[in-house]
Amino acid sequence: MAWQLQEAKQRFSELVRKAESEGPQVVTRNGREVAVVMSAEEYHRSRKPKMDFKEFLMSGPDFDLLDIVRSKDPPREIDFS
User: What is the pTM for the complete model shown?
Assistant: First the structure.
């Protein structure tokens, strides 16, 4: 739901309750989105540092523990005609 700024000011307690129970609430002024009110829990969750790509790859499984054997079969023949 989008709240007009004037309404958001008048019904601030309700706005905060809805942010806690329903998720982020958008506040508009002159029809344009100007702010978002969200619960503190959601805010802190969104501020957690994200892994960079290298950390993501390094956090994957240890493939050395897997017993993977490459096939010695020759590649299949493909007819391009």
Answer: 0.60
